[in-house]
Amino acid sequence: MNKLIGFTRKFSSSAALNSVKTVTVVGGGLMGSGIAQVAAQAGQNVTIVDIKPELLDHAQKSIQNNLQRVAKKVHKDDPIKMEQFVKESISRIKITTNVEEAANVDLIVEAIVEKLEPKQELFNKLDKISPEHTIFATNTSSISVNAIGSGIKRKDRFGGLHFFNPVPVMRLLEVIKTESMSEETYKIMMEWGKSVGKTCITCKDTPGFVVNRLLGPYSAEALRLYERGDASKEDIDIGMKLGAGYPMGPFELADYTGLDTNKYVLEVLHKLTNNPVFRPIPLLDKMVSEGKLGVKTGEGFYKYKKYKGEARLARTSTNAFQCCVVLCQSSQANIACEDPYCILVTKSDASAKDIDTAMKLGAGYPMGPLELADFTGLDTKQSVLATLYKETQNPVFGPIALLDKLVAEGKFGRKTGEGIYNYLEKI
Q1: Which protein family is named in the record (predicted)?
Q2: Are 7 and 137 in contact, with CB atoms under 8 Å apart?
Q3: CA distances from 419 to 273, 279, 281, 347, 401 (A)
């Protein structure tokens, strides 16, 4: 059996597997079923809890279909092993509508509706019925982890495990370390994440964590470029793919993640940070009110056609001249996203390496924003930001203390041997 599930354990350790053998996932939706799948693939016994039986049935079918696809890739030349892999993984998964039946486990991961009150109520209940050793984790993407766990007693055994959709495919896991979390809990969470095949990065309980915090300004500025008529959505998307190497443009990405989700994340970030870059966007509000949410509704910024259950983009291409023009215009969106200097690094909410890893694995960036800044030159970045701030008076392009300090010290990045990273040490 070790050979069968070994590919999901390539980052595993005995510490994690000894600490976490049983897992409960509360929430049978897309994220919850994905988390349950990767845990079962890694050899752990999993229980999925949801108050809706139909969601549990759908989760089981979805997991079985996904496991069959995984089996075909891993054991394509061995039908017996394919069948064995699916059968053994499925056998480790149980379902129930009663959370009390699933409370006696090593780890409980919450993946329910993205609202504070229901999450608080769930953990307050779990805190009363779960054994003392059980670790609690929330999969929230934008709500304060500390706020979610404010009513529980085991704050030392509580934190965030933010997976990315689709969970079986996306390699990134943001581990949110609260001030109350014990070092033991932190180590167990990190090792457990590795045991289910994820690359883990650490972030404090800061609004949006890493990926959403940096994607927010990028998406918002792209929307405003389009809203102002500075460039078409097609040109902005092509500009960011060809000019920045992104796998998807901001409008394609917004359609894929859901315009309602984008709207909600921006609202939460605006409320928590009061940063004007996250202020409401009339165009986004209008589209959400019209039910144009993206791929899941068949229309968002683009229209989608269904082919064998998969949504495919149906649109015309743009011309090369417009594409070249937008490479300059869309630099605002690019730089807005590459402003982790003051958002994260100077607050020590996350390390430079973890920020770059998060954006490469969680957002598909070819280079992390800090790696790219060092590559292009911090002095160049400072100059471009100053020009944009002068022309637009947009505070997102305002002075950045850390960037100014590094440039003043002559640390421009790769060309001087040191910037955000020290390249001289690698020689």
Answers
A1: Belongs to the 3-hydroxyacyl-CoA dehydrogenase family.
A2: no
A3: 27, 32, 35, 18, 14
Q: How far apart are CA 301 and CA 234, in angstroms?
A: 9
CA distance 177 to 110: 16
Query: Do 141 and 167 touch, CB atoms closer than 8 A?
Result: no
pLDDT for the residue 426: 59
Query: Active-site positions?
Result: 141, 162, 174, 212
How far is Cα 118 from Cα 48, in angstroms, rounded to an integer?
Answer: 17
The H or E element that residue 236 is part of is helix 233-244
User: Tokens at residue 208, please?
Assistant: 């949006």
Beta-bridge mates of residue 28:
none
Cα dist. 1→20, 37, 61, 298, 330 in Å? Answer: 18, 16, 23, 42, 51
Query: For the segment 397-421, what is each residue's pLDDT rounded down to a tens digit?
Result: 888 888 899 999 999 999 999 999 9
pLDDT in tens, 41-93: 999 999 999 999 999 999 999 999 999 999 998 888 888 888 999 999 999 99
When pLDDT is averaged across residues 126-142 and rounded to a whole number, the result is 97
Between CA 313 and CA 249 the distance in angstroms is 13
User: How would residue 336 be classed by pLDDT, with cut points 50, 70 and 90?
Assistant: very low
Asked if 346 and 202 touch (Cβ cutoff 8 Å), the reply is no
pTM here is 0.86
Closest CA to 109 of 169, 57, 55, 167: 167
Do 108 and 24 form a contact (C-beta atoms < 8 A)? yes
Q: 335 and 179 in contact (C-beta within 8 Å)?
A: no
Which residue ranges form the domains of the chain, and what is each CATH number?
22-204 (3.40.50.720), 212-416 (1.10.1040.50)
